[in-house]
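Appendix B. Extra example for self-study. Work through it before the problem class; the solution is given directly after the inputs so you can check yourself.
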Amino acid sequence: MNSRLVLTGITKRYPSVVANDHIDLTVMPGEIHAVLGENGAGKSTLMKIIYGAVKPDAGDIAWEGRYVTIANPARARRLGIGMVFQHFSLFETLTVADNIALALEGERAGPGLPERIREVSAKYGLPLDPARYVHTMSVGERQRVEIVRCLLQDPRLLIMDEPTSVLTPQAVEKLFETLRRLAAEGCSILYISHKLDEIRALCHKATVLRGGKVTGDCDPRRESSSSLARMMIGGDLPHPQHRDAQAGADALVVHDLTLAADDPFGTSLSHINLTVREGEIVGIAGVSGNGQKELMAALSGERPLPSADSVKLLGVAAGRLDAAQRRALGFAFVPEERLGRGAVPEMSLADNALLTAHRKNMVTRGFVRNAVVRLYATDTIREYGVKAGGPDAAARSLSGGNLQKYIVGREIRQQPRMMIAAQPTWGVDVGAAAQIRQALLDLRDSGVAVLVVSEELDELFEICDRLAVIAQGRLSDPKSVRETNAEEIGLLMSGSFISADAESTRAYSPAGLI
Amino acid sequence: MRIRLEPRPEPSRLAGWLSPIVATTAVLAIGFVLFKAMGKDPWQALYTFFIEPIDTVYDLGELLLKASPIMLCAVGLSVGYRANVWNIGAEGQLIMGAIFGGGVALALFESESRLVLPLMILAGMAGGMLWAAIPAFLRTRFNANEILVSLMLVYVASLVLSLLVHDAWRDPEGFNFPQSKLFTEHALLPNLLPETRLNVGFLIAVAAVAAGWLFMRKSLPGYQMRVAGLAPAAANYAGISAKRTVWMGMLIGGACAGLAGIGEVAGPVGQLVPIISPGYGFAAIIVAFVGRLHPVGIFFASLLMSLLYLGGEAAQMKLALPSSVTGLFQGTLLLFLLAADVFIHYRLRVVHTAVAPAGKIA
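Solution. Structure tokens for the complete assembly:
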């Protein structure tokens, strides 16, 4: 059988880093081929080269037996290469059919498109209504639109970039069925991920990248997660220690928090109740876009609330306090976005320490004590193993994972009594993620109340004592992690707990009385 | 073939400081061509414009005297600009400062107290701050655009001044000219350098430059203003109040512009007249950017701007060039500076689009 895609010696250099260093890769028809690697290993660059979005400095690409130059994505699509990006490129104010028509060329975009969308989506188990507006759809549904958009172009190679990071476990299972069916029909799939279990469950072959080089080729079905991890990070995966929680007094009490979204595509929060006690980690699971962003802004004080009593922080009715006032109570927060929110990109790490840690003796009579600031930054860099040029390195010069370690360190070293971390390990490589989880556990063991919001169920099960689920702006009752499992949480993530709740609301609503 | 702007991985710091020099050189070149085109001897014209205005001690005094109000306004504006607070109305705040300070001078006309001058200075700052407080309030309360509000208030301030000097504050012995009484010695800034008109106002401006540097670089509120300008979401995350940022940016700008206003009426002008400033408040916007929003840069940029004013006057008198030459030089300076800045952050790349995408065919 002829190979579908052969890459030989693909090299791409950027001013500061060699992203791809003589990469060889062969994909056969009907093969689900994993490209595995930590953040910054060069996976994305390689995929962009195949999709024509980035031009390689050296190396050859052979497509179905012919050498080709893929000058741009349009050329890639004509060859039969489709790509589903991690971050969707859909217009929220248009319908599904409109969005798909925009990506198709010529006749394919003409009348009859809605029919074909229905046909293709039904065939691959991806139900879609062509007339629906994208902004009304969940993240999982939006991904379906992206996939169907690719499938309508009859691809012979489909590139999936970290497709499961936004899906519930059930939706992941559905996606895998679709991908297996596609592969059975002869379509090749390049599957990019750092989730080892998924790759072992789905893929026929795996190419492992580390530091821009291929460090291994294997059949993932015959490997264990730890052997894959060794190839990926070049060492063993650290495992956090998890002792039983010694929960103390209530540190954070959210009482009946209802809040209208402040942007038209946001999620409104509805009757949220939650208690986090000292010495425990409470996790909030959920697919992103279900109100996490709004809940975080309400808890952190970035969006002060109309009622003081809806958030009680360390014994103080804190709803109306702003972020600085809440921090003064002993609160710390690691936000989801690092650059631009958790850190000022253009400023040095030292200046970024001053951002939230200035209460730590860094200011006398309004003037900044530079020596104290630099010492705090240097200590944070050392204690949290941040790879950086020193306290003067600009925040934006750090990789995402390193900056996240720095921000986590900066917040924890303020010795908070209540700490919230949103997506603490999102996009962080495996080694750094384990380190951040351990830091959160240590914080808990020292008697701090910790709330973690994450999309990664594995992570939540690993570090949390109790777990709640957020869906459509509502929060489920927290369950002890010992008394629940991924399947149950997955069901809750799809909103199963809401129906009864919503039912009762309807009965009491004025409309119900008429 | 297409031409494309590509972001540079790391903008050079050196280029950031060189670009005002490059821009100034480009302005000189344009001036050369322009004078030539107008039939003047370009070397002679450039000499008249840039060298002659500063070839005596008296002229140097004039240079510093004119630079002072520009420097004051620019330092104050730069604090706000760093925090994305766009106060365009320093000219109006300057006029209001002159009205308040001048009002004190007229009210205490008979007094010979040493406190008259300090009181005028305080009143001038208060006037500038009051005028800046209006856009600050409208912005924080109703989210009204401070660019428009502060700009429109310039014309209101100018009309208020006109009303006062035409009516209530007009000098009864002034032959009906629209101007106030000449201030007494107690209401004038002391001279700094004999043989020149240079006064203590220059020292105040230099002190403001130093204070601006200290505030922006060494103080926590100054740091927080910079954060607010660079990353508003990070400022919100750290609990830096956006309202406080707007208020501080506007009030500091207003206070400095008010000081500049009092420096004019208690300095070279010596009384209230309908027109106090030939656009110092607007020129300061250019100076703030030419000086990279940095106090030291602003110091030198205001000297340059002052030279453009003086050169423009000299060119009018000696070469019979229109007064708009000054504005033209100011405008081209800003244009070239912004253009140079684009190339600090981006580089030009000529992209050859491949005609046939197929390479070697097996």
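Self-check: Residues 119 and 480 of chain A are 44 Å apart (CA to CA). If your reasoning did not lead you there, revisit section 3.
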